[in-house]
Amino acid sequence: MPYNPEIKSTNILEPPSSIKTLEVMLKLIVSLATLLATLPFATATAGVYASGPWGQCGGKIWFGPKTCAVGYHCKEWNPWYYQCVPVAHPTSTHQSSTSTRTSSRSSTTPSPTSTGLALSAKAAGKLYFGSALDNPGLTDEPYLAILSDKNQFTQLTPANGMKWESTEPSRGVYTWTQGDAVLAVAKKNGQLLRGHTCAWHSQLPSWVTAGNFDNATLTSIMVDHCKTVVGHYKGQIYSWDVVNEAFNEDGTFRETVFYNTIGPSYISKVLHAAREADHHAKLYINDYNIDGTGAKSTGMVNLIKSLKAERAPIDGVGIQGHLIVGQVPTTIQANIEQFAALGVEVAITELDIRMELPVTPEKLAQQKEDYKNVIKACANVPACVGVTIWDYTDKYSWVPSVFDGEGAPLPWDENLVKKPAYDGIVEGFAA
Ligand SMILES: *[C@@H]1O[C@H](CO)[C@@H](O)[C@H](O)[C@H]1NC(C)=O
To answer: 372 falls in which pLDDT band (50, 70, 90)?
Structure first.
């Protein structure tokens, strides 16, 4: 099928980021001070604070409390995120803990009835629930308000802003405007950021594809590009989709300019470049149609095995999750498990479930079931760290512009109203 997953307009509409960065840092300091002053769960011991049930208690760029309320201990999920989890008997401990401490809750603590996709993900032990964000959304206030609600989203991915055509449109000339604007939103909100992407055959400027470079030259161009981009965002990115869409449907390697010129070793070379530029970011290989088991997923399994065998830096497999209502594979959990068994983490990185238009109540009900099943598959496997939807509202979906007559793939409609799919996600995490 004609597949070009992430093409969108690439308007540049943000002012230079240096002023914004300063502004964001000042705001961060102010909000930190506010946070420290209003911390929930102040314990009886003066001056000692603890995070509440399921609260964050450590990790890079975390300046809050590092201890947990009674009955909870601080668990390290990864260097970025430590969470207060029940010591034992989750239900009873949680109840006694909340009932004895309700009075000390501050207004900044989500009330016990708060709901949200990120809260649901967190309760299922996931690191984040996130959304892609493209630069046109940055000036849409109602859109940004929902995107910035951390009960809903604790992670962002720039839909286009860190792709090669955006970051190095001509050789050696780097532009950071779009990527930095998305980073600024994530920082302001305290959301994790996934970087996307270093080596991909699409949205690649023609100076790369049509340059007729020899092996050595293209290798250094690719390595320099990845080192420069990953280095620019060093320390600020949870994970990078270093390689994107390396496979054909039959599990063989796609014949991209990188593969044809450098050979299959382009993958380990670009992974090493990314690791050198940022030692802490998790390095992923990302692809579509590797949701369920099958030839393409087997290709990915074999690649991860060979990368592990040669000790290349590979930390994760990204399952894009561009799916179709009523056609969601039944083997998603088994597939996540086979990736996890290789010793990598797994994330669903670009989830959307499209339908043929017009929208009907039946299709929306099926879409809800489909979302629930995909989320449940991730919820059931501890190595699946989080789920990102490819934007959260149909208003900004890439689907209608690429698939004729199809659309409505996301949990909020064009008017930012929640659809049944939203409840499907919540139910999937609770299942
Ligand atoms: C490119 O060069 C590397 C060595 O630098 C070599 O291992 C690889 O096989 C070459 N690729 C092709 C397609 O000739």
So the answer is: very high
Centre of ligand 1 from the C-alpha of residue 207, in Å? 21
| Peptide linkage before 358 cis (omega within 30 of 0) | yes
Please report, as a single letter, which amino acid is at residue 396. Answer: Y
Q: Give the integer Cα–Cα distance in Å for 137 and 141.
A: 8
Distance between Cα 263 and ligand 1 center (Å): 6
Average pLDDT for 278-301: 98
Task: Check residue 99 and give its pLDDT.
Answer: 37
Ligand 1 atom index nearest CA of 215: 1
**Choice among 6, 168, 245, 350 that is catalytic:** 350
Residue 51: what pLDDT?
75
Is there an atom of ligand 1 within 6 Å of 223 CB? no
Instruction: Give the Cβ contact number of residue 15 at 10 Å.
Output: 9
pTM above 0.70, yes or no: yes
CA distance 184 to 197: 18
List residues bridging with 346 in a β-sheet: 317, 384
pLDDT score for 88: 59
| All structural domains of the chain | 52-86 (no CATH), 117-430 (3.20.20.80)
165 is catalytic: no
